[in-house]
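This week, study the protein below.
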Amino acid sequence: MYSPAATATSPRAAADQLNVRSGPGTSYSVVRVLPEGSIIHIYCQTPGSTVTGPYGTSNIWDNISNSQYISDAYVNTGSDGYVADRCS
């Protein structure tokens, strides 16, 4: 049911509905929801709250737009570590 593997340059979200949050953690508000298989662009990554998803357990959060973050545990980047610059 999950999306096929994607490269780090065009990762895909792997959840029926993936919450996009206003900051890097589950305590931040949900600003929108991505459908499964959405192709995303990771602008930068930052540490935040730890989440377990289909791609493991991670505290890395991916910035996909201005003040919009998703847990890297739900993104098939092909790596368990950082694949983009750290957010400043």
Notes: Strands lie at 17-21, 30-35, 44-53, 56-65, 68-71. The mean pLDDT is 86. DSSP finds no helices and five strands in the chain. The first strand starts at residue 17 and ends at 21.
